[in-house]
Design brief:
Helices cover about 25% and strands about 20% of the residues. With about 180 residues, the protein is of the alpha/beta class. Strands 2-5-1-6-7-8 form a 6-stranded parallel β-sheet. Strands 3-4 form a two-stranded antiparallel ribbon. A hairpin with a 4-residue loop joins strand 3 and strand 4. Helix 1 crosses helix 4. The longest helix has 21 residues. The chain is globular.
Amino acid sequence: MYSIENFPKVILGFAAYSGTGKTTLIEKLIPLLVADGIRIGLIKHSHHDIEMDKPGKDSYRLRKAGACQVVLASPYRTIIFKEKLQHTEANLLEQLNCVDLNNLDLVLVEGFRDEKFAKIELHRPSLGKPLLYPNDPSIIAIAADQPLSTSLPTLNINDIEQIKVFVLQYLALKNSSVKGA
């Protein structure tokens, strides 16, 4: 089992308040990174009760019968259902340790904004929310829709190409520091 600090793949998060556009940005960013040959895993945090299974399906029936883990496998994808015995907030490390690392270069994370790992903050001043970075030293850059006064690198939240370049540079930097260690 790994820790966030010694996780063998580069982890980069996107943190923001709800409604800032995290999912939309990541949805646009992923195809650009994939086109550059980057193999991406994604972990998305939700505060809601998620249910991907459907009543009546075999996997649903077996889970409801009491199986705490169900692996549904097909030629196209594998889905792993894990029931949490205690309804506690998900933690990032637990989710990272579920990821199959064999074919990944980068793990993108949406949410988990209060955990300590490298993140790009997304900020839209028009939403009236405070910046996260003054209280989170894990934030390495800010993507906003207006210029900001900060010592951190700032990106245009609407310029996906610029964000892609930043992510690729970060990935290269992290990979070179691992090889140089």
